[in-house]
Protein 1
Amino acid sequence: MFWWVLFILSAVVWADGGLDIRGSVQGGGGYFLLQGGGNTNHSYGSQILWRIQVVNTDTEYGQFDALVDINQWGGVLTNTTSGLLFWSSGRESMFSIDVRKFLVRIKPSWGDIFIGRQLVRWGEGVVFSPLDFFSTLERSEGSFSRRGVDAVRVRFSVGENGFGEALGLLSSDWTNSSLAARGGIEVGEWYFTGAAFWNTGKNEWKGGISFKGDLGLTWYGEFLSHFSTSTNGNFLHGMVGCDYSLDRWILRCEYTFNTAMLSNLSLVEKMTHPLYPFFSHHYAMLQVSFLPTVLDAFSLVGMWDFDYPDTDFQDKPQRYSFSYTRNLYQNVVFSGWLQYEQGKSLWDEDFSSLSVFLSVKVMY
Amino acid sequence: MMKEKMGICLLFFSSLFFSLTGEEILRKVDSNLNFTTAVLTMRMEIYLPNQPVRVKRLKSWTEGSARSYVEFLNKEDKHTRYLKLGKQMWVYDAEENNTFLISGHLLKQGMMGSDISYEDALEADEIYEKYTIKLDQEETYEGRACYVVILTAKVKEVSYYQRKMWVDKEYFVPLREERYASSGKLLKVLESGDLKFFDGKAYATRSVVSDKLKAGTKTVVIIEDASFDVPLQKDIFTRRYLER
């Protein structure tokens, strides 16, 4: 029903103006080494991604915005395939279609109403973001991108910079829906938001704040409190981060903590837990980017899990990734990344992995 | 003889009382650039050593010196928009639906890979508070008679310790500016030309920005279309419009 209403609204908005179609085609392949459970696997993977973004050009009364990924996966990457539709297209080959965004924005004079699959970013953190209730981080990619949710969102402005918004995650079972609200305001040169979330089915509450401002370094943070009637459902979750730029270098640090006491969670419970994929109490991230020319960008990211007090540092879970991008032509970008990770899998088994992936993206 | 002496005295006193100070020259520059609103369509050409030129097209809506909104028109950057409100720069990535505030030292980075930093774009009316302004000399630059004005920082919170500007004497348009670090090292050069007249006021429609720390690079900004003092949509300088 939700999608039918959305399609009808989309058609009405399309009729109001033309469509602007743009996107990119990205192709690449890589090598993956995985060690765990006494086994060592060497494998290859490939991906051809055709990303299409469609927006309507007349935005006076409403706007349509869709972002669709059409993927051809090869080798070991067929195991990571997800999306709205996917099917095998040969031996070790999968084809998938993933609708990342598909929404209509209606613009009454007092604000905006967003209906459909949308990316809802409420946090300030790049990697650790407790306030991002809805758009979870995709870790499998070389970059940090987030996924959309199917929702109805209402938003209104307060002055130039302030705003208030409310969001509902619809469910066929209304008593199992989730509701959330957020407001933002500028105080001096600092920006603050406050957000609250209620999952009616689980009777779970969350409330938190975020801030961002400049004190020599740029500082940002998010603090969130979880309340739930379920066992061990009450805990604090927070992060602080800062960034600094010096000549051609950009440094970013983030630290996150939580006070949750988790044990004996099933795989499904882990995958749907608000802390996923960071279940330990303390993590830190350091990103160093170097931009020697306007064409080249290098980035090194390290992430560390500071739990496991009886384990030496070198054996604690940690992850390092190094990436390089080069703008080859006006609309062509080469990118490559190398990643090493060691830690515990969702099945609590020790593992380590090494992967390298090279790709070329053409924007149209 | 007496007449000649009086003439010299008059000339001396008139030059004393009627010549412009450095600050007056810059105020005249501001007055020439004074508009309530401006809508500009621009072409940005980024030149790099041994590389084909990268071209970006953008459109900006400006009100006074404190508020502006920028959209990129070329397909590679079409999802990126900027909103400047006073000293704050908000950036919106329409593909990721992500709005973020650029602040602190990140403002020193080049906008969209150009030689123009966010800080350059944010610069407003603060030069009178932050710099001591002095008329250095008059000289001819590119065949035009110019005032040479030197700005020296009197506070620490500036991007450039010293700035040297060549201002056209007739039209009060800056034709060249050199920006220096406190060590005396030349950091950036801005050159303007192709003067065009809008409502009797002269504007440079071609500017070249060279970052002297990056060898062989320059960014050329060409104003393709301009209209001044036109009514703007009411909500254009809001986050709501940025995120539309």
Protein 2
Amino acid sequence: MLTIEEVRKIAALAKIKLTAQEEERHAKTISAVFEYMKILNEVDTEDIEPTFEVNELKNIWREDKAKKCDYGTELIEQFPQKYAGMLVVPGVFDND
Amino acid sequence: MRELNKLTIKEAYEGLRKKEFTSVDLTKACLAQIKKKNKEINAFITVCEDKALAEAKLADEMIQNDKATILTGIPFSVKDSIVTKGVRSTAAAKILDNYIPSFEATVVEKIRKAGGVLIGKTNCDSFGHGASNENSMYGAVKNPFDLNKVSGGSSGGSAASVADHMCFFSIAEDTGGSIRQPASFCGVFGLRPTYGRNSRFGVMPMASSLDVVGPMARTAQDLAIVLSFMSGKDEKDSTSVLSVVDNYEKIVENKIKKDLVVGVPKEYFEIEGINKEIKENILAQIEKLKKEGIKIVEVSLPYTKYAMAVYYILVPSEDSSNMARLDGIRYGMRDKKAKNLDETYSLSKAAGFHEEVKRRILIGTYALSAGYYDAYYKKAQKVRTLIKKDFEKVFEKVDLLITPTSPFPAFSLGEKKDDPMQMYLADVMLSPAAVAGYPALSVPTGFTKSGLPIGTQLIGNKMEEGLLMQIAKNLTE
């Protein structure tokens, strides 16, 4: 059972502000999901290797070479806030 | 005159070649259908009327100059969680409401290079999070066969746009059923290709180790045509695996080999609450195959019942890290009330994400956190190995598997909306192939007495998309 405090803690780690109603709903619904996950405890996975990639690919290398990027203007266009072609971001410290 | 928007790709291609009509005519016919129906169906978030007409004109020139492919001048739609250069791509989430991508997804680029006309971006569950399309921040998509029913999800808009003749085909994305389930609810063909068959570049990631991009169409042949243009290795996606692309268009036309063996996995037919009419329909398809002289054998995939739990650990886990990039800094919506960096993140996400997106981020953050990683994430990855081995073993004996796509037909709007666990269970027949990376196709094989489409799922061995489409064609002719 996930408590409201735990939901708050995870939400803070994930940096999402939740309303009180959301916290309540998430505690309830996520608890139900984890309850369902318990079914996996029935499975003996001793000596079983995890599958992170289904085709068992290992590292795919490419040459570390700079490429031309021809859409700089479009990228800057998407900045939520800009100044003279630069990205404006809020202050990192509260007393900035 | 024939209704142009109802033609198959092949018929449209022939008409274009014989100059019976132009791509502009086809595009106008689709736009007219969108104008007539989209208000009630809500399949599109963005319609590219002017752009599409301009592209159609260019396509007509390609045809004039003999530079056409079979897709030249054919209007198609793209799920809104797949980026399209210069065309708004929201993923049905307010955080990307104003996002105009500066690049194109590889699969879309390939179709457009072949002359396909992008008619619009289709509605979906936000970032693919859902099985009914009710988790869109732009309203639910309604089922063209019954406006009180859901279209399925997450690619509900794509399915409805094809089913309701607003375009000829759609490019969609499937993580755990997002192409196949809406295809079955809306009565169209929907293919989840092998993991790595197609490039994921430009497909907004949900769970990177499961996401695939595939086509939806009205005939098996159309599906084959589109897939042959989409597929292949891409240096921009290092998990795309094979450069050789089979001639799918030809394969679907081939006669079925008489020594083919089709497996019926008993676990799929024992699922609780499976609709009787659906079960009967799938059994009838099996009979049809038998009559063709195909050998049918009962098989068992004992780890099937764990696939859902594996899926709902792996997906939110990968999701939670993928979603972290949407933070209101470089693109998308930034909440104006934020007073510092921390609030910029937390308020932009609060306003820009659907509740289900938040839920998945929270589940994933929890499952990946220290102390829980081994119990949830790693455990799920180990059970995933066993599910994969189930498939490896069964494909030593059979060429493909036949199952229902969904245990029930399209359900009513609102029916499962407030109970995420019920919604998750809609994926019960869809998640095993996804977790293991195998291709699967939903084939429209009939209707319930109340007129709702039924889908039969064919699951194949890796890279056997051709065989799946060939059998699909056979079942629907």
